[in-house]
Structure prediction request, 414 residues.
Amino acid sequence: MEKGLIFVISGPAGCGKGTVVGKLREMMPNIGFSVSATTRPPRPGEIDGVNYHFITRGKFTELLEAGEVLEHTEYCGNMYGTLKSEAVRTLNEGRDIILEIEVEGALQIKSMMPDDAVAVMLIAPDPEELERRLRGRGTESDEVIKRRLKRSVEEIGLAENYDYVVINETGKTDECAAKIQGIINAEHLRYQRMKDTVNGYAAGQKI
Amino acid sequence: MEKGLIFVISGPAGCGKGTVVGKLREMMPNIGFSVSATTRPPRPGEIDGVNYHFITRGKFTELLEAGEVLEHTEYCGNMYGTLKSEAVRTLNEGRDIILEIEVEGALQIKSMMPDDAVAVMLIAPDPEELERRLRGRGTESDEVIKRRLKRSVEEIGLAENYDYVVINETGKTDECAAKIQGIINAEHLRYQRMKDTVNGYAAGQKI
Prediction:
């Protein structure tokens, strides 16, 4: 069975990746999603095991030391990470995985799995819109928002390490998700992933 | 204005590229199509300036020597080529081009324009289907068909020089064309083509 691919959907805070990935979940029900682990407390409405695995810092450190975290980052005082066990199980079933993670973690995955991971950076249409989105969330202090804005612009400078950049236009979540779906489909048609098919053909296996 | 990209749709004789590209013309009316030049005589129903520019060998050689042919190949005794003037004009208008060309020509374009050309190899589902398609056309002698079959298998061995490989399943032209449309859309989102957008953003041009 052909192994799945990891599609890393990432981008600075305020790029709207949560909403876009939610839409992708609806559009591609067969794709695997690896729920991240985090030490930050749930926001109103967030569900443990669905939005994140909400775990203690002690548990996170324990998993990290056991080599059970594929990528991780500390962000605004909280740990976020992808549990290796979750990702590997799904890939081995021949299913793709969509990972919604922060920029730092995306780069870790790309460097750890260069052949299997495709990284997409989502960005807001412009910095003003980015700020509006961060403030609109209404859950962070002004100090946190300023820190996030500064970091967001720094993170966009890391886009060169990504495979794709998609602008998440305001009010066009469906269009943005459809673009990412197109990227997922196209990546499966790249020569290196069709190599076995081509080689079998050229060797006349079906003649 | 952002320059267009060249999408080279290619593959061995019998892969069905003519039909698929015809479908793409319908699906993407704004995309540019560069009509190839050839010295072979028109088949029944083919129209000069639409299917090909049907020109004499003398004229073809003249254009070739003047550096006016972007890629060319001799195939079964006939010359085929892409007129430079046609392609350059369209790209400079900011429009993509779809080129339907033979395998040899596709490799010439890829080596001449590595940053601007994306090559897609279409293949029949299997060698038996390929032979059936070549015979079904009913316009070639048995000797020509055998020569083409042998060459087709050789050409599939060149797929490693392509960016994408798409299987053109029998009776699924629409699906095949939709896959190529997805590739075209995805390629425009690759980081190197979004670089100006990203750099402008990071430099705060819109702040």
Q: What stands out?
A: The first helix of chain A runs from residue 17 to 27. The first strand of chain A starts at residue 6 and ends at 10. The beta strands of chain A are 6-10, 32-33, 37-38, 53-54, 69-75, 78-83, 97-100, 117-123, 164-167. Chain A is about 45% helix and 20% strand.
